[in-house]
Amino acid sequence: xxxxxxxxxxxxxxxxxxxxxxxxxxxxxxxxxxxxxxxxxxxxxxxxxxxxxxxxxxxxxxxxxxxxxxxxxxxxxxxxxxxxxxxxxxxxxxxxxxxxxxxxxxxxxxxxxxxxxxxxxxxxxxxxxxxxxxxxx
Length: 137
Description:
- The longest helix is centred in the middle third of the chain and has 27 residues, at 62-88.
- The chain has helices at 2-23, 29-50, 62-88, 91-98, 101-112, 119-136.
- With 137 residues, it is mainly α.
């Protein structure tokens, strides 16, 4: 089931880029990001209440709070940079560079989470990097 959600994530991320490029025209990129974030926030809380998981907030530990906050800050920085990039450049070039996050995530997961780094992972990372270069040039 994780694969279905991952695939849907990719589809919605693609839609996000195209819709944002049209919506950001004539709008400050920081303001556009803030507006988009309000919609994301409302949607996320709606899902919490629909799934009746709001009672779990009290059981979140200190470590989880710290890392969720840090993750939120990283997400915010990513979105601000992404919106500025698509405002200044073409989505067809910005999106592939943004997807280099897959390679960076792989490296960080190996270093900090001690996840496996296999020959297959290395080949995939090289191919993603090469594909990004080809798409951007």
